[in-house]
Design goal:
Layout (H helix, E strand, L loop, with lengths): L2 E9 L4 H18 L2 E6 L8 E8 L2 H13 L1 H13 L2 E9 L3
Antiparallel strand pairs: 1-3, 1-4, 2-3
Length: 100
């Protein structure tokens, strides 16, 4: 079974540039830790404070192993700290999807 973790972010709309930097950093980190990065998406038109990320995994067990590797990764930990310090993410929701 293949699953996709869809992360929905509520952003501070005045800090979208910081979120874009955060998302770009994940481009190297996520694959190294075992995730198949589909992409990060910022608002283009309409709502200005919602962003999405989609990351694929072979299974939920693979997702759990990925999360452990991500937390142990020095660049991953630094990117999490960056988000906490800059406070551009106001809310984060995860959904796990499968293809129909």
């Amino acid at each position: 079974m293949r699953v996709v973790c869809c992360i929905r972010y509520t952003l501070d709309p005045f800090k979208r540039a910081q979120f874009e930097e955060y998302a770009r950093r994940w481009g190297a980190i996520i694959p190294r830790c075992g995730g198949d990065l589909v992409g990060y998406y910022l608002p283009h038109e309409g709502t200005n404070n919602i962003a999405l990320a989609m990351i694929g995994f072979a299974s939920l067990a693979e997702y759990e192993a990925y999360r452990a590797r991500l937390r142990a990764d020095p660049e991953g930990a630094a990117n999490f700290r960056f988000a906490e310090e800059e406070r551009f993410i106001l809310r984060e929701e995860r959904s796990f999807l499968r293809a129909v």
